[in-house]
Design goal:
Helix content: over 70%
Largest sheet: none
Number of helices: 10
Number of strands: 0
Distance between the termini: 25 Å
Low-confidence stretches: none
Order of helices and strands: HHHHHHHHHH
């Protein structure tokens, strides 16, 4: 019912504005999307962007998790990593995109940007979970000489897991938004971002909204699979 209401509001705004070049209705977008789905170009673009954003996210997930664990165990490592993580967390996506265009090929841009946007979210989430561990539990593990694998599985992971899940939920959406934004600026051939940019250049509002719907659906599906 909420989805139907949202579509009705969308259609109402379309009728009020009355300018297809500014906003088209959901029916027009669905028709355009139906045409796109049956084209080879559509699936190539989805595969191109989806694969690179997924690789960027997974790499950041593994790296952020490992660094978060190390920083949580050793204060010196946390202090050493702080300026880098703080900088990555604060720098705007556009600044990273411009810099990365100098350092990397445009086709790999979404991998790097997705990685950079997700890394601090995962890192700080895991670090926060590590800091919430009861110190007495860690002291007990040390006294009884608990093996490192058992200490991780029984004490650390249960504390980190809720924060990691919450961080992943935010990071998944951020990976797609940042990755596609990078592609719009870098315009690598055959990407979703390039399709969005082309639609904007030629004032194809239907295509623009159709590709936006595709991004939303891919992001939701990706989130369901990962979580």
């Amino acid at each position: 019912l909420s989805l139907i209401l949202a579509l009705l509001v969308w259609q109402g705004l379309t009728l009020i504005i009355g300018q297809p070049i500014i906003l088209v209705g959901p029916i027009t977008v669905i028709k355009r999307l139906a045409r796109l789905i049956f084209s080879r170009e559509f699936w190539c673009a989805v595969a191109f962007s989806g694969w690179r954003i997924t690789m960027g996210f997974l790499t950041a997930l593994v790296t952020g998790f490992a660094l978060g664990l190390l920083a949580g165990r050793h204060k010196k490592i946390e202090t050493l990593l702080w300026p880098y993580m703080a900088a990555v967390k604060a720098v705007p996506v556009a600044s990273f995109v411009v810099l990365c265009l100098i350092w990397f090929k445009s086709k790999n841009l979404s991998v790097v940007i997705s990685f950079l946007m997700v890394l601090p979210i995962i890192y700080f989430g895991v670090l926060s979970g590590m800091k919430d561990i009861d110190r007495k539990m860690l002291e007990m593990a040390t006294v009884f000489k608990m093996p490192g694998a058992d200490r991780f599985a029984i004490i650390e992971l249960p504390s980190v897991y809720p924060m990691l899940t919450s961080g992943c939920r935010s990071a998944l959406a951020m990976a797609w938004k940042a990755g596609i934004a990078a592609e719009v600026i870098g315009t690598p051939t055959g990407s979703i971002g390039t399709m969005l940019y082309s639609a904007k250049i030629y004032f194809e509002t239907g295509d623009l909204l159709a590709w936006t719907v595709v991004i939303v659906l891919c992001s939701i599906l990706f989130e369901k699979v990962v979580l």
